[in-house]
Amino acid sequence: MAVDTLRCRICESEYPAVASGVCLRCFGPLEPVYDWDAVARAVSRESIAAGPRSLWRYEALLPTAAPADAAGGPGWTPLVRAPRLAAALGVGELFLKLDHTNPTHSFKDRVVAVAAAKAAELGADTLACASTGSLGNAVAARAAASGMRSVVLYPETVEPAKLLATAVYGGQMYAVRGSYDDCSRMVVELAGELDWAFVNVNLRAYYAEGSKTLAFEIAEQLGWQLPDAVVAPSPPARSSRSSGRGSSSSGASGSSPARARVSTAGRRRGARPSRTPTRRSGRCRRFARQRERIRSPSERRPTATSPSQRRVRRAVRSTPSPRTRSAPTCRCSPRRPASSARRPPV
Amino acid sequence: MSLLAEATGVFGETAAGVTIGALRAAVASGAIGEGDRVVALVTGSGLKTPQAVEVRAGTLIDADVDELLAGLGVRA
């Protein structure tokens, strides 16, 4: 169900649902605000079962309207029993959620589907991201399918197989002499310069919502029951957090009585923890610069302007000041001790 | 990755191997046991990270059934 408001998870400031991934007041992450009463009226197990055989069967629980090709979208991947592996490991009952059967062979198609739907709604003509491989695959493929341009930044050390699966879709690729963190920093800075749809930066609030469809599907495929445990790799931390949110959403809508334990399994090499204290001050400054750019459009250097770019630019510039009155304390201020860094401002 | 492939017929990327390893550790620690229903996420295809698997070469033979049968210990 399309939403019209984003809310900061930390200080609860609210913003219109445009291309904005971070709270301008406290730099916290933004999340869509659902009208749960309206969702409850619109959705039932039956309405979901009658929907497309893709993640868009949960359209009522997502922040954007489904695209025209929703039936061919990612998601609704098989959940299969693995009795031999269960016996080998000593687990009572084990299922595998086969998300490698998505269109570009990873769960990233889920998050990109939702971000790309929002990008199209905003009139963006370029879909972009920083990636260690799979996200770039998904962005390039979705852009090709929907007639958008794609731009992917990746560390030069990315595996050849993942490069092939981005290059084949014909988008623009940049091999960065640096780590994934460097690529990530670059797209955050670029988001202040360009009117592109950066799926994991200025569309992050929508992107993240795609992950929860994994939990919805597991619940539905188990007959609207949640399992005792879900084991997921991490990062992206976003996946487990949003999958957990998906589980609690299922519970909140009365579809399932229990909540899943989400065990996290470790990290892929090449990626660092998403919240490294020593990196906070740098990230904080970058966001501050982005904030300046958004607020001072006259300082922006001229860029090519298509009608769609102008629409996105207007949407970004129309972002008003926060409506709540929380203290404008930056969580990642280097002056605050690390032990209090995770505590929301009071 | 190899255990997943050999026990389920699913070729997951390295992250799936980590997931199965974590599940094994969770069983060893008692966090997950015989009474639990568990879902493990296979988030990506093993073909994305082929260098993580040691490719076992097949046995090279001539185009001769007798040689293969002899290798199997079966008389033609």
List the helices and strands and how they pair.
The complex is a heterodimer of chains A (346) and B (76).
Chain A: E1 5-8, E2 14-16, E3 30-32, H1 36-42, H2 45-49, E4 79-81, H3 83-89, E5 93-98, H4 108-122, E6 126-130, H5 134-146, E7 149-155, H6 160-167, E8 172-176, H7 180-191, E9 197-198, H8 204-221, E10 229-232, H9 237-252, E11 261-264, H10 280-295, H11 307-317
Parallel strand pairs in A: 6-7, 6-9, 7-8, 10-11
Antiparallel strand pairs in A: 1-2, 1-3, 4-5
Helix pairs in contact in A: 4-5, 4-8, 5-6, 7-10, 8-9
Chain B: H1 2-8, H2 14-28, E1 37-42, H3 65-72
Structure description:
- The complex is a heterodimer of chains A (346) and B (76).
- Chain A is of the alpha/beta class and 346 residues long.
- In chain A, 37% of the residues lie in helices and 13% in strands.
- Chain A is built from eleven helices and eleven strands.
- In chain A, the strands form four sheets. Chain A has a four-stranded parallel beta sheet with strand order 8-7-6-9, with helices on both faces. In chain A, strands 2-1-3 form a three-stranded antiparallel beta sheet. A two-stranded antiparallel ribbon of chain A has the order 4-5.
- Mean pLDDT of chain A is 78; it is low at 236-240, 250-305 and 319-346.
- Chain B is mainly α and 76 residues long.
- Chain B is built from three helices and one strand.
- Chain B has helices at residues 2-8, 14-28, 65-72; one strand at 37-42.
